[in-house]
Structures are given as C-alpha cells and as structure tokens.
Specification:
mainly alpha
C-alpha cells in the first residue's frame, strides 16, 4: 500500500468541499423551483433513466436513489399528487407502473437543472483535479 501524502488528503478534502457546495446549492435551487431536494432528485432520476427512455419504475428508482422501496413509493405518490409525475401501467406486467414527468414536472426540473449549470462545471473541475492529483501521485485516492 502506497503512503498517503498531504497532497492526496488535500485533493480529496477539496473535492469533498466542492461536492458539499454542489449539494447545498442544488438544495437551494430546487427549493427556488418549488421542489424539495428529494423531489428534484426523483424528477432527475426519472428524466435521466439509464436506458434513455425518460421513464422509470419504483424499483429502479429505489436502486438508483439508494432508498427503501417504501420510501420511494411514498415520494412518488406525493409527486403524483403534486402533478409532477404521471403513471402508466405496464402493458406486460400489471404489477409494474412506468413513471414519467408531467408537463409541470418537466418545467420545474428544467428550471432547477439549468440553474445548476455553473455548479456542475465546478464539480467536473473538482473531479478532474482529483484525477490529476491521483495520477501525478501515482497512487489511488479514496473518497
């Protein structure tokens, strides 16, 4: 195991600080867009479905959000009641509902998403800096 240097620790500390700033700013912008931070994340995960379909299921969301399925079910129900999410029953499996954003959900997500453009760029820079530090140090940096 390679020795951990002060430079390694500083690089990881700066990355974690940038990540925290990003998350805090995302919370503020979500609230300005009339979304709770969890609803912003929910809408983002539905729109940004892994398969590119802009649809998801509760099971997929629970996995991606790292939350209990019952928690996601409640979050989806409240977002649906608020007019942000729409359900469509699966034609092949009656137990499955595909979730998509409503027009209002799209509008609020885009408002928050575009408001975070600068923060995403800062976070990308922090990732790049962390990768360069790790490569120059020639050892693995852990977060």
């Amino acid at each position: 195991m390679a020795a951990i240097t002060t430079s390694d620790v500083c690089a990881v500390a700066e990355f974690r600080a940038q990540l925290r700033r990003f998350l805090r700013r995302a919370e503020r912008i979500a609230r300005k867009s009339n979304l709770t931070p969890q609803r912003y994340l929910l809408l983002l995960m539905v729109k940004g479905a892994v398969d590119g379909s802009e649809r998801s299921t509760v099971t997929e969301l629970a996995e991606r959000m790292q939350l209990a399925q019952s928690t996601v079910t409640e979050l989806v129900s409240r977002a649906e009641e608020a007019g942000l999410i729409e359900r469509e029953q699966s034609p092949t499996d009656a137990r499955v509902a595909h979730l998509g954003l409503s027009q209002e959900g799209e509008r609020r997500l885009m408002l928050a998403f575009t408001g975070l453009a600068a923060e995403r760029a800062n976070l990308r820079e922090a990732f790049t800096h962390l990768d360069i530090e790790a490569l120059e140090g020639n050892h693995t940096t852990r977060t």
